[in-house]
Amino acid sequence: MTTEHALVEHGNAAGFSSGPRLLADIGATHARFTLESSPGVFESVKVLKCDEYTDIIALLRAYLSTVPASKVHHAAFALANPIDGDRVRMTNRDWAFSIEDVRREFGLYTLLIVNDFTALAMSLPGLQAKDLMQVGGGTPVPKSVIGVLGPGTGLGVSGLIPTSDGFVTLGSEGGHVNFAPVDEREYAILQFAWKEWPHVSTERLISGPGMELIYRALADRNNKKVKALPAQDIMRGALKTEAEADALCLETLECFCGMLGSFSANLAVTLGAFGGIYIGGGIVPLMGDYFATSAFRTRFEAKGRFTSYLAQIPTFVITTPNPAFYGVSAILSEHLRGRSGDSSLMDRIQQIQAELTPAERRVATLVLENPRTVLNEAIAEIARLADVSQPTVIRFCRSLGFLGLADFKLKFASSLTGTIPVRHSQVRMSDSTHDLSAKVIDNTVSAILNFRDQLDVRSLDQAIALLRKANKVEFYAMGNSRAVALDGQHKFFRFRIPTASYGDAHLFSMAAELLNPGDVVIVVSNSGKLPELLKAVDAARLAGADVIAITPNQSPLAKKATVCLAVNHTEDNATFLSMISRILQLLLIDIIAVGLSVDAPEDVGQGDDIKRKELSRFSNLLISHLDS
């Protein structure tokens, strides 16, 4: 499952036997908490006002002080904020915190934080008809994309994309697209909003504060002098009986629902959301039956040539209380299952066994019963142990959607490494030696695991093939990357290949002009943008030499190279030396060196095993060091 989230962990994974799980849905205005005592059983549900607390730690302490003293080991929070790494700075509140610091403060083994609409999206597959109110026609198409949005303090947007074994959540900040008026009244509201902001996003209007702005804008348009009202009072004034309803409040709500209908339609056509559009948040569910008869559905279908397209897409209001609890519960449960070895890939293998041929089923049985053996053995040994041919092993891997054995093993290795958190922790001046040591090792381990999952084996094959027939090999690098180039020169020289390394721009520029067809240049660069290196690469290619670039795959250097071995790890090069990038670059040098040190394999899968084993050797060394 791919989500926009960050997590930190410590200690051993456990299920509900280790105690209740703490779940929360923290918005800009309210924070909702519960203890999940067993799957789907939410106890001690409480709502706290965020304004009453100085930070998230004070908020959590306040909730935990009101519940039974049972120790909580695992927690998952939905947060109304983009989540990107350990540091979180809320956009709608003056709160900033480190996820790792919060985990330590409360002694949690696991703290998982996800975007609130990622959590809401993940709740949808588990909702029942009683949890929803359908507005208008249309029927959900099974295994289709689902859109989800909801106005509250802001405007959250997400989606669910179907896969072979569930859904992938779409991390989105779609509420910040430009607002698009559809008539003169909405254009007048936009002009009014422009007086306050030069850029008016949809969230500025389709939200609680947006409803308040619409009210003031309509009063200005209607030449009425009114005092500003909070969104709750506007809704209260509009939802009274017909005789008692306030005309301006009613017009505001009508305009709000129409805008929401147009925006929902835009989301539906963007995603192709034939699974339906689901509306949550803190505003629409409070409208009740009014929303069903509002301008929402009419505006949703008012799409010109695409009216019939949108008429097929159903729209629902999520009416169940606290739906985000179901979403964070599902995300946390899946995460903890993965840590205890019950990986989704293993589940997939079990599920498709009936669809496999008898020979492929023998491979599946071997994988399920001896996963580490399959991970560590070459294709010939796997075929022997399963009593099948080597092509059968490849067919088994392809039946799961992988390119071959190497691709399968890379993903399978990742799925079996659930005890190692993939995360980045910022080192701080206040850290003890123990803490900073653990963080440096953690960051390196997680970077290697990510690197292993993204490794392009085909590019490695191409690079090794070029080097096997090279007349000579030259390494070009500058700055911090020179250590990597020197390491490569020392290794490759032992293969009886004429090898040189240049770290001076003037020298490698001259050397590049003396190259010939059949020569290979390996260029190492953290940025892939240095003009001196790019000029030398142009000269090398003009001379007929091939270039292997160890660099980010979208860099100018990558585009000029014959083969790019991508290292896409991002580091602050302006402030720090590129420590982790250097380690990943050295790993690539080692993988190539091991590939060169053996004869060309008869089976491609066997060569892929060599590359995977070399990478795993380094990651396992670091993992064992971390565990000790």
Task: Give a nutshell description of this structure.
This protein is an alpha/beta fold. It folds into 4 domains: 5-116 and 324-338, Nucleotidyltransferase, domain 5 (2-Layer Sandwich), CATH 3.30.420; 128-319, Hexokinase, domain 1 (3-Layer(aba) Sandwich), CATH 3.40.367.20; 342-415, Orthogonal Bundle (Arc Repressor Mutant, subunit A), CATH 1.10.10; 455-597, Glucose-6-phosphate isomerase like protein, domain 1 (Rossmann fold, 3-Layer(aba) Sandwich), CATH 3.40.50.10490. The two termini are 30 Å apart.
Structure characterization notes:
- The protein has 628 residues and is α/β, with parallel strands linked by helices.
- The protein has 4 domains: 127 residues, ATPase, nucleotide binding domain (Nucleotidyltransferase, domain 5, 2-Layer Sandwich); 192 residues, Hexokinase, domain 1; 74 residues, Arc Repressor Mutant, subunit A; 143 residues, 3-Layer(aba) Sandwich (Rossmann fold).
- It is 45% helix and 16% strand.
- The protein contains 25 helices and 19 strands.
- The C terminus is likely disordered.
